[in-house]
């Protein structure tokens, strides 16, 4: 019931926001998203008391004859991702207060619809419902990018849409194939996640491999994994900052989450056969994207490529399918979500204050605004996974997990840490340190809304860097249960 | 059956309107009549009696009633959408009765039990449409459309007649049930060769009517040249009726020789998918784009037929598909009709519609998303049902092809959306749309969404 409420609340709020005008829209959206966060915290405490409580899940029939149910529920992993979503959306909305968007009611309404779909994806316990939410998440973000994006957005967003949609269609076929193998013995077909697990494991290696690649394709495009990443940098750059934050902060996690919950338990045999290939692709992506990131001049594009590198490591960790790898991936998904939102906000602040994001044209901002440089530095250190920041624990577990799978892979994947430090610190150095460039830039004090967002993010980075136990406590049993499911 | 009679009576009544001077009353009368036909059609659903009529020439069983329901509902919305097309026209009365007679033909096609009724249905449906396609008398494109449609349509009718004659020669009967019995009495391959030739000829004639590739060449020109509302009628009512006929003719009449005709179906489907989607992606004229897209939808519906004959999949998918497609098309054509009134039919006509009329732009967006098959619209479930039954067949390669071409499909549907929201137009004044048309566009949009939210209602109604 409570999970259902988590899905319905943003939808209702979105409808209300659509009806308002002007700045009321954003205030209302902010209030609604904070209320949603409060609700998710309440759910979190309920979950801590009793993870199996009936009040948490919801299960009602949607289409009787085809076994489709509106079934949503929570486990440790999905709860963490729901919390990430509900935590980030208020920050994303708040971060937009300094930007003037035309038709704000549509803009904020779409963000809330997006939140609804994302929570749905993370909580769905029915294959069909999962697919529907998965696709639904694409519509609002497409319109956010199309309506409020930068130059040449028509072409770029179209590419993004077609790319992701074709992946999704293959996933749909994979899921339908599984569905057609459910009900062995009883003859009653079902979309329930556990039935799909059973159906998947009853298949032979070749069938599982087909299903594996069909479903993985959708997730790999969403994350994105090399060589399916070509839509990503352009889309991230052209999207409005809030759209980029949604894409990289939360939507990207749909892909990694999907692999954990909707792929690993379904096709264990295929994973043994093809897991290595998929990890190899992820690792290539890490190095490839890192190298390109080093050469970037546009700070936003740099972060976009860094995001590919990070997600490559997460995906490699998940596909190594051991406790450390998957648990590390879950933790890293949260850290990356928080950090990347911070980084994109910084890119946006740079653009707003100085009129450019070009690294070469910036410099010496530290002398103009010390506070900003400190906040930037903390987020940056979180992103390069310095110990005592939130990025460290996840990255450590991930590398550990990949190492257990293959030491060579771990060696290459480990390069991501070094290369990450190279491009991030190089970026920081050129933007913040050194002399003020001859063209002359001004950098005044930060707006209150930006300050609130950045400080909150920095607080989270340090808090979970020092004390990651609550996250581990939630993730560990869920990952254990999942992995034992695979045997 | 009553629905068919009511619409026929309505057609005759419409012709009298000019003589007895109740032209003003005609439009409400027609709407009421179509509604009444729909209601009577609906009431027959639970009444299994009276299935066959006129010496077993025609019979409204559940399949026929369901498809008639789709046709009548579409026609009802269509009349509201097309009202001002009739208003500005001196031949209004003739046009109304022509449309009604075309609908009579369509209803006959859903329910024929005899080859003569099949032929009558096809002709009664087609001949009014030849005239209607050319009804913009002073427009050369419209004349071309009517002429082309007539020539090609007659060609198909010739195939149809020849096929019927050959089948009569082999089985000695026009009656569908007797043909079926004759086929099943013979051992495999026991029928004379010209019987199979007849079956193939019938298939070609019907594929022509649903404009599947490679029998689609008439469709783009005819769709583009005809008045927009007539295009809407052709792409919805005609298509639904033709599929109802295919279903009855091949899945019931020729089920015994299914291996003969269903062997070519995968090729037809594959060709339609590829040709239609890639051609549609290259169009600059929206009506032409919709013509090609309708070919691709026909391919999807043919997949249901193929899956049914090869693995006994349910036909509910076909009904759902035609309903979703018809309703979505009415919404799309409704907006298109209003946007293109000034004569520009390219994608540019939609430029800036998001600002000039946000409500219509939103409806068009939903219609396009439905045609593209995005959740939670009716079009998504329609595609889902097709995928779900195709996965049980041996034609998985067709499924993959369908997905890849669907991705191409998304490209041209989204092009309309991009024009509406992304491009700006030199004109800034609001696009005015009449209240009645607005109502029908909004209504069909709501139905599109509702069918996507509760798809079980239609799909389960027809699960045999």
Structure description:
Chain A has helices spanning 2-19, 23-49, 76-95, 104-123, 127-136, 138-148, 153-179, 193-202, 205-222, 232-238, 241-262, 268-294, 299-319, 323-354, 365-368, 370-383, 390-405, 407-432, 448-466, 469-485; strands at residues 58-63, 68-72. Chain A is globular. In chain A, a hairpin with a 4-residue loop joins strand 1 and strand 2 (68-72). Chain A contains 20 helices and two strands. In chain A, 75% of the residues lie in helices and 2% in strands. In chain A, helix 4 (104-123) runs antiparallel to helix 6 and helix 11 runs parallel beside helix 13 (299-319). Chain A has a two-stranded antiparallel ribbon with strand order 1-2. The two termini of chain A are 31 Å apart. With 487 residues, chain A is an all-alpha fold. Chain B is mostly helical and 464 residues long. In chain B, 76% of the residues lie in helices and 1% in strands. Chain B has a two-stranded antiparallel sheet with strand order 1-2. Chain B is globular and about 70 Å long. The A-B interface holds A 62-66, 131-132, 135-136, 138-139, 143, 146-147, 153-154, 158, 161-162, 165-166, 169-170, 172-173, 176-177, 179-180 and B 354, 369, 374-376, 380, 384, 387-388, 391-392, 399-400, 403-404, 406-407, 410-411, 414-415, 417-418, 421-423, 454-456, 459-460, 463.
């Amino acid at each position: 019931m409570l999970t259902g409420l988590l899905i319905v609340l943003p939808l209702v709020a979105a409808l209300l926001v659509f009806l308002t005008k002007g700045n009321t829209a954003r205030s209302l959206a902010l209030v609604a998203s904070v209320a949603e966060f409060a609700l998710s915290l309440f759910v979190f405490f309920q979950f801590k008391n009793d993870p199996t409580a009936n009040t948490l899940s919801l299960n009602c029939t949607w289409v009787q004859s085809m076994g489709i149910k509106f079934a949503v529920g929570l486990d440790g992993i999905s709860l963490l991702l729901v919390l990430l979503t509900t935590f980030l959306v208020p920050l994303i909305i708040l971060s937009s207060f300094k930007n003037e968007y035309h038709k704000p009611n549509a803009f904020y309404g779409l963000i809330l619809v997006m939140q609804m779909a994302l929570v749905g994806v993370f909580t769905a316990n029915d294959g069909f419902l999962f697919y529907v939410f998965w696709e639904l998440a694409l519509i609002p973000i497409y319109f956010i990018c199309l309506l409020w994006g930068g130059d040449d957005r028509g072409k770029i967003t179209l590419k993004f849409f077609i790319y992701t949609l074709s992946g999704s269609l293959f996933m749909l076929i994979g899921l339908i194939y599984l569905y057609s193998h459910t009900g062995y013995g009883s003859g009653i077909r079902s979309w329930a996640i556990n039935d799909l697990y059973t159906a998947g494991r009853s298949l032979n290696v070749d069938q599982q491999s087909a299903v594996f690649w069909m479903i993985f394709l959708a997730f790999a495009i969403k994350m994105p994994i090399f060589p399916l990443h070509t839509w990503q940098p352009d889309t991230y750059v052209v999207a409005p900052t809030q759209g980029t934050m949604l894409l990289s902060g939360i939507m990207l996690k749909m892909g990694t989450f999907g692999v954990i919950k909707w792929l690993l338990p379904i096709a264990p045999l295929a994973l043994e056969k093809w897991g290595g290939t998929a990890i190899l692709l992820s690792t290539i992506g890490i190095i490839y994207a890192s190298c390109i990131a080093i050469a970037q001049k546009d700070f936003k594009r740099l972060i976009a490529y860094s995001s590919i590198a990070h997600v490559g490591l997460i995906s490699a960790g998940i596909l190594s399918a051991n406790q450390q790898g998957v648990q590390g991936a879950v933790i890293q998904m949260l850290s990356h979500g928080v950090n990347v939102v911070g980084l994109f906000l910084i890119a946006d602040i740079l653009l707003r204050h100085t009129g450019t994001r070009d690294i070469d044209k910036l410099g010496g901002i530290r002398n103009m605004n010390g506070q900003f440089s400190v906040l930037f530095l903390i987020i940056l250190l979180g992103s390069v996974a310095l110990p005592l920041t939130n990025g460290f624990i996840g990255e450590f577990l991930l590398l550990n997990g990949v190492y257990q799978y293959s030491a060579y892979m771990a060696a290459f994947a480990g390069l991501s840490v070094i290369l990450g430090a190279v491009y991030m610190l190089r970026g920081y150095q050129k933007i913040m340190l050194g002399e003020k460039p001859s063209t002359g830039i001004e950098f005044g004090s930060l707006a209150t809304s930006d300050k609130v967002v950045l400080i909150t993010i920095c607080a989270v980075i340090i808090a979970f860097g020092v004390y990651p136990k609550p996250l581990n406590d939630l993730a560990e049993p869920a990952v254990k249960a999942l992995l034992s499911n695979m045997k | 059956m009553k629905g068919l009679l009511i619409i026929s009576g309505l057609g005759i009544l419409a012709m009298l309107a000019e003589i007895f001077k109740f032209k003003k009353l005609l439009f409400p009368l027609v709407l009421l009549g179509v509604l009444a036909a729909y209601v009577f059609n609906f009431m027959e659903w639970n009444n299994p009696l009276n299935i066959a009529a006129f010496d077993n020439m025609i019979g409204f069983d559940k399949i026929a009633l369901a498809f008639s329901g789709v046709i009548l509902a579409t026609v009802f919305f269509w009349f509201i959408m097309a009202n001002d097309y009739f208003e500005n026209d001196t031949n209004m009365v003739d046009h109304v009765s022509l449309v009604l007679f075309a609908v009579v033909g369509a209803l006959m096609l859903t329910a024929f039990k005899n080859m003569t009724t099949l032929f009558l249905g096809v002709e009664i449906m087609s001949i009014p449409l030849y005239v209607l396609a050319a009804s913009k008398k002073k427009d050369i494109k419209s004349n071309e459309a009517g002429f082309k449609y007539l020539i090609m349509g007659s060609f198909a009718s010739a195939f149809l007649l020849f096929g019927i004659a050959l089948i009569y020669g082999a089985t000695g009967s026009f009656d569908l049930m007797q043909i079926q019995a004759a086929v099943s009495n013979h051992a495999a391959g026991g029928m004379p060769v010209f019987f199979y030739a007849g079956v193939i000829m019938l298939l070609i004639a019907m594929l022509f009517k649903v404009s599947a590739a490679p029998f689609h060449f008439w469709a783009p020109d005819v769709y583009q040249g005809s008045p927009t509302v007539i295009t809407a009628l052709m792409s919805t009512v005609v298509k639904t009726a033709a599929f109802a006929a295919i279903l009855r003719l091949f899945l019931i009449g020729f089920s015994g020789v299914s291996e003969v005709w269903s062997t070519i179906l995968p090729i037809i489907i594959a060709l339609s998918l590829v040709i239609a989607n890639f051609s549609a992606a290259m169009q600059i004229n929206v009506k032409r784009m919709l013509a090609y897209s309708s070919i691709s939808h026909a391919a999807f519906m043919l997949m249901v037929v193929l899956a049914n004959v090869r693995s006994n999949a349910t036909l509910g998918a076909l009904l759902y598909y035609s309903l979703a497609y018809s309703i979505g098309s009415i919404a799309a054509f409704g907006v298109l009709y209003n946007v293109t009134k000034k004569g520009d039919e390219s994608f540019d006509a939609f430029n800036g519609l998001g600002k000039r009329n946000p409500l219509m732009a939103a409806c068009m967006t939903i219609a396009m998303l439905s045609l593209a098959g995005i959740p939670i619209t009716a079009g998504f479930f329609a595609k889902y049902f097709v995928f779900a039954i195709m996965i049980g067949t041996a034609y998985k390669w067709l499924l993959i092809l369908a997905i890849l071409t669907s991705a191409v499909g998304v490209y041209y549907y989204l092009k309309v959306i991009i024009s509406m929201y992304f491009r700006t137009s030199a004109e800034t004044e609001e696009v005015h749309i009449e209240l009645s048309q607005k109502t029908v566009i909004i209504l069909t949009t709501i139905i599109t969404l509702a069918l996507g939210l509760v798809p079980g209602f239609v799909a389960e109604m027809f699960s045999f």
